[in-house]
Design goal:
Blueprint (H helix, E strand, L loop, with lengths): L6 H27 L23 H16 L3 H15 L9 E3 L5 E3 L8 H6 L6 H19 L4 E7 L2 H4 L16 H11 L4 E3 L1 H7 L15 H14 L7 H4 L4 E10 L1 H5 L7 E9 L6 E2 L9 E9 L8 E4 L8 H4 L5 E7 L12 H7 L3 E7 H4 L13
Parallel strand pairs: 3-4, 3-11, 9-10, 9-11
Antiparallel strand pairs: 1-2, 5-6, 7-8, 8-10
Helix pairs in contact: 5-7
């Protein structure tokens, strides 16, 4: 026997439908009336849709399927923020396949950087290099060193450690080490054994952390304390080729701490206000010689525009540095020691391509030194599956 709905029941149903319709229309309403509050979420912007036309139809479809709608619907940033508040503070739930995970206290760590690179698995040494993969990488770097040596150019590989390597004690307990050796251990030992010059900054950062904060709690990068220690180690390593470098190292800086800023990892969660970070700044007590030049350089195949620093002092050597984001803090320190410093930021190695090594530019510039600087997680990428030869 069915019971006729009561008036209160009808009201609840009507209100529920009305609420559902309001919520489902909110994204469209935000596009029209700009209703969403301002929330900072650090992420890559999608490609813009082309003007509508039949000739641009395929391109429009291509943009749509690559995440345009996912990143542009109304209230998206607020929903991302709410989801992360729910996961981190209420459910206390995170896993290694999320982009950012919360560690102990207020520490954040990069985890799934992209579809191919999981930094937690790299830290845990879940999968090591095979002998063939290791030999492939050694050949790549040995060939670079030999090619440069034929032209009278010195070569140094510099490896900046992952934050996970420097501060493993702040990772969640479940992310234990699977192997006592890591891919970094494998490749550094193999390169050293093959006579390739490589500077592993892991021991240096372990010393820094005992005296100061080496890496930011809410960012994936080192602090200026860590970067300065890395710079000093580089200069000391180069001393055998350039004995003037070590005496030139200067430590006369004013150090300032700026509180209540937002680290990159917190911004990727849209939770910068929940994880404030104090930033470290070194201000020199001397006048810097190196200045950025206006020399234009092409961006492709580079991830970011090239930085060129010049002291206009031809008595100093010149350098070409293949870099990633960790070199940002190194630029002001290193550039003081060179006549001309060219910082090239190529895309990292992937399963399809090896990080670009610009031989044409090197032959044109004729530097005294080439540095390959990597953060650990890019340095330990597996070689391309097809193991194609490096680009000439």
């Amino acid at each position: 026997m069915s019971v006729a709905p009561t008036f209160p029941h009808k009201v609840i149903v009507v209100l529920g439908v009305a609420l559902f319709l309001c919520l489902i229309c909110l994204p469209v309403a935000d596009h029209v009336f700009d209703l969403a509050p301002d929330v900072y979420l650090m992420e890559n912007d999608p490609n813009q849709l082309p003007d509508f036309s039949l000739s641009q139809l395929f391109k429009s479809f291509n943009v749509l399927q690559r995440g345009y709608l996912e990143k542009t619907f109304g209230f998206r940033r607020e929903l991302v923020r709410l989801e992360n508040i729910l996961d981190i503070f209420l459910l206390r739930s995170s896993n290694q396949y999320q982009t950012v995970i919360k560690g102990k206290g207020d520490w954040l760590f990069l985890s799934q950087e992209n579809n191919e690179l999981n930094v937690i698995q790299d830290f845990r040494a879940v999968k090591l290099f095979t002998p063939a993969q290791l030999a492939h990488w050694v050949k790549i770097y040995k060939d670079r060193q030999d090619w440069l040596a034929e032209r009278g150019i010195h070569y140094l590989i510099v490896v900046a450690p992952n934050k996970h390597t420097v501060y493993p004690e702040f990772l969640p307990l479940q992310y234990n080490k699977v192997s006592p050796i890591s891919r970094t251990d494998q490749i550094v030992n193999a390169l050293t054994g093959a006579g390739v010059e490589v500077l592993d900054l892991r021991p240096i950062m372990d010393k820094v952390k005992r005296q100061a904060l080496a890496y930011y709690r809410t960012d994936t990068h080192w602090t200026t304390f860590g970067a300065f220690a890395g710079y000093v180690a580089i200069m000391k390593r180069l001393d055998k080729w350039f004995p003037q470098f070590e005496p030139e190292i200067r430590g006369d800086f004013d150090i300032s701490i700026t509180p209540d800023l937002s680290g990159g990892l917190a911004s990727m969660l849209a939770l910068g206000d929940f994880f404030p970070e104090s930033r470290v700044t070194f201000t020199p007590r001397f006048k810097r010689e190196a200045v950025a030049t206006t020399e234009a350089r092409p961006t492709p195949p580079y991830f970011q525009p090239t930085v060129v620093m010049d002291t206009h002092n031809p008595s100093k050597p010149s350098v070409v540095i293949f870099r990633d984001s960790f070199a940002h803090e190194l630029v002001p320190f290193l550039s003081e020691h060179f006549d001309k410093s060219i910082y090239l930021w190529p895309y990292p190695a992937t399963s399809r391509d090896i990080r670009f090594f610009d031989k044409k530019l090197i032959e044109k510039e004729k530097p005294a030194l080439v540095i390959d600087e990597f953060v650990e997680r890019y340095f330990t990428e597996f070689p391309p599956t097809a193991q194609k030869p490096a680009k000439k």
